[in-house]
Amino acid sequence: MAVQKNKCTPARRGSRRAHDGLKEETLSIEPTTGETHLRHHVSADGFYKGKQVINK
Description:
Blueprint: H1 10-16, E1 27-29, E2 36-38, E3 47-48, E4 51-52
Antiparallel strand pairs: 1-2, 3-4
């Protein structure tokens, strides 16, 4: 098991954790329906990249 040589100061620990905060979800607008949806996900109407992939 790895053992640290020196104690990590709170400032260095905080600097390392600075990028761990929650980010906003990236949203896209479906070109055919104009609906807002998550990136790389099928919209609620069943469209993905302008094509209907799920029939409702």
